[in-house]
Amino acid sequence: QIQLVESGGGLVQAGDSLRLSCAASGRTASNYVMGWFRQAPGKEREFVAAITRSGGYIHYEDSVKGRFTISRDNAKNTVYLQMNSVKPEDTAVYYCATDVNPPAYFSGSYVTSRHNYNYWGQGTQVTVSS
Length: 130
Prior knowledge:
Elements: E1 2-7, E2 10-13, E3 18-26, E4 33-39, E5 46-51, E6 58-60, E7 68-73, E8 78-83, E9 92-99, H1 108-112, E10 119-120, E11 124-129
Parallel strand pairs: 2-11
Antiparallel strand pairs: 1-3, 3-8, 4-5, 4-9, 5-6, 7-8, 9-10, 9-11
């Protein structure tokens, strides 16, 4: 079992910055992919960003490229999402998730699918006012 706990959400104004954290506990392994997803009211949960354990592969959803940065500190079992220049359309509940058994080789479409992630956090609310 793996437990994921997100933190860092809140109410900010458009153009501000925010850093989300996701702390993992429980079983750990060297090949986990960590991802961030978000879900706005009335919409489906969508992919935001993902990172492999080494950090050698990172993938972003197009609308956050250049504004958001995903990173991880394996010593702390924590993954981060630095959100800069936030927009009202970034308002959502943000979830972190982990894929504990990714294939040896995968494309961007693999990490964008929420169905490939095994464990999820409870989410943290991000609200961006205009």
